């Protein structure tokens, strides 16, 4: 590696400074400089390919809903029907017919993938990964707050477990202190149980 660097770097410097500048910013640069082994990263399955055009019946409809007059007067909504299965997809995500066509084809490909592969489809795998991530976050959160609660119990900080109730009709407040907390009297400094 050092030999390669010694031979290539002097040739590359006169062209435009550092070779890292060629990589630019963002994902390409971070991947090029990363030490992560790509074989260890679990990759998601590829997105399913849309079915051939001969299997699709395409129609354009007038849209409805938000978007104003443009949506209501133009045929920008796209409806695709997959002839072999009878699945119908309608897309009105944007005001552009061409973008809606692409979105509808992607949605149809995902639906067909779900139908054919079931639990092994890309959508199912992505949903499972999101579910696992959310469960892990919830578990970490519970662990964190349980640990904080236990630390608060052991410390016995003043003000813990004290409830203040305000009577709405009189505006007076009542403080309820649990019986297991010691209270120090302000006059003599001695503690007494309540």
The overall average pLDDT, rounded, is: 76
- CATH fold field value of the domain at 53-120: Double Stranded RNA Binding Domain
Poorly predicted spans: none
Taking the alpha carbons of the first and last residues, their distance comes to 75 Å
* Range of helix content: 40-55%
Structural class: alpha+beta
- If classified by CATH, what would the architecture of the domain at 53-120 be? 2-Layer Sandwich
Rough outline: extended
Order of helices and strands: HHHEHEEHHEEEE
Number of strands: 7
CATH class of the domain at 53-120: Alpha Beta
Q: What value does the Rg take, in angstroms?
A: 32 Å
Helix run count: 6
Strand content: 15-25%
Q: How does the SSE layout of this entry go?
A:
Blueprint: H1 2-16, H2 19-23, H3 27-33, E1 56-61, H4 69-73, E2 77-82, E3 88-91, H5 97-117, H6 122-155, E4 163-166, E5 173-176, E6 182-184, E7 191-193
Antiparallel strand pairs: 1-2, 2-3, 4-5, 6-7
Name its key features.
194 residues, Double Stranded RNA Binding Domain, two-stranded antiparallel sheet, 45% helix, Pep_chain_release_fac_I
Explained architecture:
With 194 residues, the chain is of the alpha+beta class. Among the domains are: 2-33, no CATH class; 53-120, Double Stranded RNA Binding Domain (2-Layer Sandwich). Helices cover 45% and strands 15% of the residues. The protein contains six helices and seven strands. Strands 1-2-3 form a three-stranded antiparallel sheet, with helices on one face. A two-stranded antiparallel ribbon has the order 4-5. The longest helix has 34 residues, at 122-155. It is extended. Its main location: mitochondrion. InterPro entries: Mito_Transl_Release_Factor, Pep_chain_release_fac_I, Pep_chain_release_fac_I_sf. Residues 130-146 have a biased composition (Basic residues). One of its GO terms (biological process) is mitochondrial translation. Pfam families: RF-1.
